[in-house]
Amino acid sequence: MSQTLQAIRGMNDILPDDAELWEEFEDLVRQWLRAYGYRPIRMPIVEPTPLFSRAIGEVTDIVEKEMYSFEDRLNGEHLTLRPEGTASCVRAVLQHNLLYDGPKRLWYMGPMFRHERPQKGRYRQFHQVGVEALGYEGPDVDAEQILMGARLWHDLGLRDIRLELNCLGQAEERARHRSDLIAYLSGHADRLDDDARRRLHTNPLRILDTKNPAMQEMVEGAPKLLDYLGGESLAHFEGVQRILRDAGIGFSINPRLVRGLDYYNLTVFEWVTDRLGAQGTVCAGGRYDGLVVQLGGKPQPACGFAMGVERLLALWSDQGNRLERPVPDVYLVNQGEAAARHAFRVAEHLRDIGLAVQHHCGGGSFKSQMKRADASGAALAIIIGDDEAAAGEATLKPLRESAEQRRVAFDELADAVGAWLYGDDDDGGV
Ligand code: HAM
Questions:
Q1: Is 305 in the pocket of ligand 1 (CB under 6 A)?
Q2: What is the per-residue pLDDT across 107-150, written as a single tens digit (0 to 9) for each?
Q3: Would the CB of 82 count as within 6 Å of ligand 1?
Q4: Backbone torsions φ then ψ of 377, nearest 5 degrees
């Protein structure tokens, strides 16, 4: 016998118990986004590779080592499975000229792909809900996006998520800081690890984000970007903080928060929990005013964030939340050829009035079918055998209460089932 094939490492099946939870989460997320005026957009999962190298930055972990890139065998195009959604979203907005009549608030949801080392909370295929506001300049949209996060954690009943905030200023401010930073780090060349040495002249800001304990002390003493910010950047940052304070959202400023994608400027933020081990960032984002131009559009400010669905749902379960398994209203038991034909009509008729019906397929004795009916969690079994078929009736049998079963004519079935399920039955039985 040949060996069963397995999914790719770091790419997970989401089995029915979990998938139902995902659906619940997605429903809630849709309502939440609507409450803030965001509209959905769906982009392809595969994009031209240069989109990501241009948007995310050539010298980032994602572009250097984590992208699933390949050549289209038919036309030689360089393609990549999207590692994130912002670049695709901005491409779509430019391609379809969506900003022609003013700013847009957009969101998307779906799988992203990064060839990282899989561990708890870090996968090679993972899912994001991403939110992008394009064409908005002031700190109000940045702050609103942060308030959105706070509301969602509240709606989901999630605790222990803290907010970290930083301001990356503008390109000129970062350039001045960068040259001082390179000078400082070069002066401590003996303390740099291989990764840092490689990044020294390409992406020194990322060195500040090092996890290497041997470099912590040296990094603490490095020039801080916040000290290089001019009046406008500081005013923007202060504007965001003021709205957060007014709304009672707690935050801490983390000057070492630099993010792993190069398109950010001004506000950056991360929502972090200590409950998930090393992969504690459940949501992250910030302002990216330069990206539209970088991807060939006319200048447009923008701000957004994305949350990791696997991480949020892991936190949700970790905090003791459980989902009730959805069950059918009715389990339809049927035996014999004539009964089977009636059963199809009855099932469709009950679905017409909005009921969830699990129709027993595949035959079997009444006893085995009733076992399935019981296991399904349905409140009510409808039984159609030869007797019932001949009489034009079905038997209604309550499965969760000790009420008597009774026979009902087919054309009265919908009313009887509806009355029983929705409780306006006066004799308490079926
Ligand atoms: P990011 O920080 O790379 O930002 O990813 C956002 C979130 O996706 C992370 O905070 C995390 O929850 C989740 N995530 C990332 N990688 C993985 C992984 N390998 N496994 C599981 N979850 C993961 C972005 O992607 C930006 N596009 C966010 C953004 C939108 N900025 C502006 N607009």
A1: yes
A2: 999 999 999 999 999 999 999 999 999 999 999 999 999 999 99
A3: no
A4: 85, 0
